[in-house]
Amino acid sequence: MTAHLALWEDILHNEQLIREAAAIAVDAALLEGVLMRTKEDSNSSDVVNYAPFTLLPSIVPSTLFEQAYAVQQDFNLLVDNISQNAEFLEHTLASTVKVDDFTAQLFKIYKQVMKEGLAQSVFLGINRSDYMVDHGADGTPALKQIEINTIAASFGGLTSRTTAVHRHVLNVLGKSKDASKLLDNNPSKGIALGIAKAWELYGSDRAVVMFLVEDTQRNIFDQRCIENELWTRNIRVIRRQFKDVFEKASLDNDRRLYMEGQEVAVVYYREGYVPKNYNKQNWAARLLMERSKAVKCPDIATQLAGTKKVQQELSQPGTLERLLPNQAEAVTRIRATFTGLYSLDMGKEGDKMVAVAIADPERFVLKPQREGGGNNLYGEELKQLLEKIKDSPERTSYILMDKITPQPSMNYLLRAHSPLKISDCISELGIFGVYIRQGKDMVVNKHVGHLLRTKAVEHADGGVAAGVAVLDTPYVI
Ligand code: ADP
Ligand code: MG
């Protein structure tokens, strides 16, 4: 029996009660602003839906929840150190850039700005480190990192509003004591405060914050949560796309970035993390912003620090110690969250891992250098691809990772236009980190909240935006 069933087992199969609670939950989500634009009308707010979410919160063991929070500042520091370590980035991504065009393009921009010398002196990192709880062979739960997102980490806004929905649902279901135990959570505020501080350190009252956004903006409400916090602090926000930057942005002699005559202090990327975001002009726009003095969140080096290949390299013996010298405790905390990660670089080690994965594909996940969900390969697909590319350098554009297997629990996933049915679910916990460096000095290093996403076990991959996972609230015990 799962922990979840034990907790709310009395209501979980009461069909009428669940149906009533689901209707109440959906209205609560609309009232709280847990919203998304529709697929059909992705650039208009005339018709909107609730963002998909679970009917009930999901259990997260408190020791693991606290562990995830406790390691976040270490990860912030690690990512920031990687972003300043040209030798490490170059060495780690050498094989990847030969075969992966997207990483190669990012790397090319990185090299260009390094050669010219950085005009930027204030650095803002907003990341989200994601975990699942692995129930290993001996049944002991362990917190294991899935990945760290260093660009466009989303849902800090909507998740700030999901807790109130779940509190209401539990109250309605007669579980007020449980409702009162749900933790407050407001990452969008912490993220906005980080942007505000970076804006202040940039030091120009007239300058604006520019959100760089996609041409399809379904998740705009998530971004507005952050945007509105900035406006309340009298910081002006503009939303622009790469094509606007290409057409209308320029640098002055000090490499200050101007957009339609307004100086830009901070560029906050909610775009630019997948190949389809770019054409030739967009790459030129990216380069222009990277060359500028504006605070990019993230700068190109920090985006590269978040690649899957870097994640895999971090798991190699001695790498963390080199990147975090004299910080043995941080290294131990970080390493405890790693599961097996393997390089597929050409050579003996890579050959061996390819053979192991082909023989036992269910043990692994095969990951390309991509973000945004839906790119990884599992099981039979993983096996077939590896068989095809096993002797080609193409294999080096992937990394191999041990598959994490959480214990499923029962829940209802509420999604507009979808039938209400009980599902076996697993969850992924994310912790948001914010840090600011001015020159060499770390002036802010914080965790600012969490995100729990839950999906039905039959989906191997995919996040909320990909239409697989839904928003959830951790019930920490
Ligand atoms: P993306 O950058 O596309 O979000 P992720 O590494 O987060 O890539 O993988 C996408 C999804 O695949 C995750 O949200 C998770 O559900 C699943 N996943 C990734 N790695 C593993 C793993 N090692 N074990 C089990 N599931 C995984
Ligand atoms: Mg992910």
Provide the descriptors you would attach to this structure in a database record:
binds magnesium ion; single chain; seven-stranded antiparallel sheet; 477 residues; Dna Ligase, domain 1; binds adenosine-5'-diphosphate; globular; alpha+beta; 25% strand; six-stranded mixed sheet; 41% helix
Write a short abstract of this structure:
This protein is an alpha+beta fold.
| Biggest sheet overview | 7 strands, antiparallel
Structural class: alpha+beta
Kindly report the oligomeric state of this protein: single chain
How many individual domains? 2
Mean residue pLDDT: 96
| Rg measurement, Å | 22 Å
Number of strands: 21
Globular, elongated, flat, extended or rod-shaped: what is the shape?
globular
Compute the number of helices.
18
Tell me the fraction of residues in β-strands, as a range.
25-35%
Distance between the termini: 17 Å
| Stretches with pLDDT under 50, minimum 5 residues | none
Topology:
Elements: H1 3-12, H2 15-32, E1 35-37, E2 48-50, E3 53-54, E4 58-60, H3 62-70, H4 72-83, H5 86-99, H6 101-116, E5 122-135, E6 141-149, H7 159-172, H8 176-179, H9 187-202, E7 208-212, H10 220-232, E8 237-240, H11 242-248, E9 249-251, E10 257-259, E11 262-269, H12 280-291, E12 295-297, H13 300-305, H14 308-314, H15 319-323, H16 328-335, E13 341-343, H17 348-359, E14 364-368, E15 377-378, H18 379-389, E16 398-402, E17 409-414, E18 422-438, E19 441-456, E20 470-472, E21 474-476
Parallel strand pairs: 4-21, 7-8, 7-11, 11-12
Antiparallel strand pairs: 1-2, 3-17, 5-6, 5-18, 9-10, 10-11, 13-16, 14-15, 14-16, 17-18, 18-19, 19-20
Helix pairs in contact: 2-7, 5-6, 6-12, 9-10, 11-12, 17-18
Bound molecules: adenosine-5'-diphosphate and magnesium ion (MG).
Magnesium ion (MG) binds at residues 130, 146-147, 463.
